[in-house]
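This part of the workshop introduces the protein records we will be handling. To make this concrete, we reproduce a full record directly below:
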Amino acid sequence: MSRKTYSLSAVAIVAMAGLSFSSADSAEALAQDGVVEMAASGEASTEEVVEIVPEQSVFVSEEVVQPLPEAPAQPVASAASLSELVAAIDSDQELTEQLHCLAGAVYFESRGEPLAGQLAVAEVVINRAEDNRWPASYCGVVYQRSQFSFVRGGRMPSINTSSPAWLRAKAVARIAHDGLWETEADGAVYFHAKYVRPGWSRAKTRLAQIDTHIFYR
């Protein structure tokens, strides 16, 4: 039973018993409960009845911890070209395991390609991870058997992490992951070098050729 219902029920019981409260203290006490008593003659008082609703208290049985706001994303300078955007990315920031796999694919498959070609390779890995025909993570896509020739024995070769090529690959992976730059290979899930023609390519839709790689969906 709520506090409001309990107060009204108590007053009704008092009225039925024929009890009246004549003292100012008693009247004040009833007024604080939000009820104006009926006049002793049985006629309703002409005074305006104003119900005072006490502020409700909220009792918390467990400690409430407010979540901390997420740190704002690192601002990226407005870039007029992909090369400017790559230069604006903080390549010294440590990569997560998944972004490391994505950057590794860019590094081993396309580090000799122009930045647009590197971005397109990253796009293929991302698109596969979002397609239920392939594993649902970047690392799962990269390490899937017989998909990327640089993977040997289920492992990625060692990377020269101090090289400019690796720093670019890291930046490209971040740009692709965050969708910061459009690529000609948007939607691509396959690619191969232009000097080979695998049988599967005849059954796919060609999207773009960027330097030495041809991309399909």
In short: The two ends are 65 Å apart (CA to CA). The helical segments are 3-16, 24-32, 82-88, 97-110, 115-129, 138-142, 164-178. Residues 1-75 have pLDDT under 50 and may be disordered.
